[in-house]
């Protein structure tokens, strides 16, 4: 292996160690992790909306001082998560999707635990998403995904 190839690999590894790599936190990672469960229930793919993503980023930045999972009263539906270590955007969406076993379609209800994050992920009328991940002052990670139009209306099914 030549010196240039080794130098390039070392540089990339250094950048990743600094936290500048976007592994599992890119726009496409968020979309893929949302669209897999949507496809499983016959819902069309959700697409990225930069306006919604900027809203999610602004909201996440406003919460990074306390890292509390407090919902906004903004114009979008949202899912929030926080985690320590290298908690990624993909990990956050996977937490929400892991609520699927608690959702009972026949009664349109949560049984045995939380499921409303999952139903927002697969909400068929929510066709656009924007997500953000910021590091809180306590070193935890805060992930926000905002949805347009919002979903999770009481009494309504997330998909048909």
- Poorly predicted regions are 1-22
Tally the beta strands. 6
The number of helical segments is 5
Give the overall silhouette: globular
Helix content: 25-40%
Overall pLDDT confidence: 88
Radius of gyration: 17 Å
- Largest pleated sheet: 4 strands, mixed
Question: What strand order characterises the main sheet?
Answer: 1-5-6-2
Protein structure class: alpha+beta
SSE ordering = HHEHEHEEHEE
Strand content: 15-25%
Q: Alpha-carbon distance between the termini?
A: 55 Å
Topology, pairings included?
Layout: H1 3-17, H2 27-40, E1 47-48, H3 50-63, E2 77-83, H4 89-97, E3 103-104, E4 109-110, H5 116-121, E5 128-135, E6 141-148
Parallel strand pairs: 1-5
Antiparallel strand pairs: 2-6, 3-4, 5-6
Describe this structure in words.
- With 160 residues, this protein is α+β, with helices and mostly antiparallel strands.
- It is 36% helix and 18% strand.
- The protein is built from 5 helices and 6 strands; from the N terminus they run H-H-E-H-E-H-E-E-H-E-E.
- The strands form 2 sheets. Strands 1-5-6-2 form a 4-stranded mixed beta sheet, sandwiched between helices.
- A hairpin with a 4-residue loop joins strand 3 (103-104) and strand 4 (109-110).
- The chain is globular, with a radius of gyration of 17 Å.
Quickly list its features.
160 residues; alpha+beta; four-stranded mixed beta sheet
Summarize the structure.
The chain has about 160 residues and is of the alpha+beta class. The chain has helices at about 5-15, 25-40, 50-65, 90-95, 115-120, and strands spanning about 45-50, 75-85, 105, 110, 130-135, 140-150.
